[in-house]
Amino acid sequence: MAMPAETHVLERTTIRKERLLALPGDVLVTPGQRVDPDTVIAKAEELPGEPYVIDLKAELRTSLTPEMVDRTVVVKVGDKVSGGDTLARYTRGFLGEVLVVRCPVNGTVEFISRSSARILIREDPRSAEPVHIVSVAKELDIWAASLRMYMRFKEGDEVKQGMALAAAPGGVASMIYSYSPVSGIIEKVCTKTGTVTIVRPIKATVVDAYMPGVVAEIVADRGAVVETAGSVVQGVFGIGFENYGTLKVLATNPADEIGADRVPDNCNGLVLVAGAHISYEALRKALDGGATGIISGGADSGDLVKLTGQEIGVGITGQEDIPITVVLTEGFGHMAMARRIFDLLARADGRKVSLNGSTQVRAGVIRPEVVVPEPQPAGETEQGIPATSTKTDGAPASGSGEKPVVALNEAYVGSRVRVVAKPYFGLWGQVEGLPGGRQRVESEIQVRTAQVRLDDGRLVTVPDANLEIHREDGGILH
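Given the sequence above, the corresponding structure tokens read:
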């Protein structure tokens, strides 16, 4: 099977990449610091934030219409709330009894359902308690000494939020349940106090620099922007997530086909470059030999399935559980690598490169990439800051000898773009404005957007994830 090539090459640029944590954490680098691909930019050791669903009908013991929900709820989506804060207030009966629903945790109001009368609170992971003690015997109205008779789990078992920890008869043909308030591991079932201790494991999250370069900007509590001078090759298809290693060109020309006999027995830490095709045996040998990446014009899709041991979705890749990243610059089958790409990689033989096989062919197109940093320039200071600076707003720098600064996958005013999602799919235009922040679009979600003047004259607002950016003069080329 063959795929048409749509490979892009970006040369002689300054590449900027945001390296951010998904949750707030500690930033471990400083502005101007030189970093390697494995340098840890930021780290967070936190509990995962649990979603808490508050059922207003159950809490208030009454049926609520959407209009009654509007009158009852005293918070709105996006509000920060603390444990004990009032979420809803309802006056019931002739005597005007006031019932109050309080927030169980610190977090953010993420969703309010008027139809089902529920509020979703996303717990703030920074304030999450690592240990929860549940008074199961008290909730079931049983003797503490008999707790184990009613338990559905034992020490060491994993439980999810909302699971019934224990159950006991509550009357005629009815049962009373004690539910787990959090997800975690049952550490202790105590028959003296009648309690169950649940421990929530702490998850460490780190983000590395991905490519060698200089810390150009710090993003408070999240990470940093890493900047480097070099070239980028965007492929057609890939598997595997971010990786890096030393480039070793195996092919002698773009049409060369690589078999297992051409792959070194020990290729630990190498990113291997093939030509038109690489066989399954060569892929397997490279993986077993410790290679971190493979760049080839083509490969058989069935061989990639055998390599990963699972079917590969053509819509989204990059989540495969393998320690190697594969980038195809032309497509599936026997396809000679573009001469420009092959020559660029051949000149970089022996240098450190970074690559990412993540591919998304639907809206918000993501292409696999190979980043080839330039050697450290002679005019760079000890702190890693270039002696001659260039613009850092994402627009091409002007002036003799300056390189365009490119924030990959980000548009700037003046960008030539193509829309890759409906209702403007396939239309070309130019970015005229970037509102900043997140805007609400027709689907009612909030995303970063760009104002694009289409070639037919219409000015439209498009999510920036639905734009494919093209540049000329050292930018992205076909």
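Confidence is low (pLDDT under 50) at residues 1-6, 378-409, 472-478. Try to locate this feature in the token string yourself.
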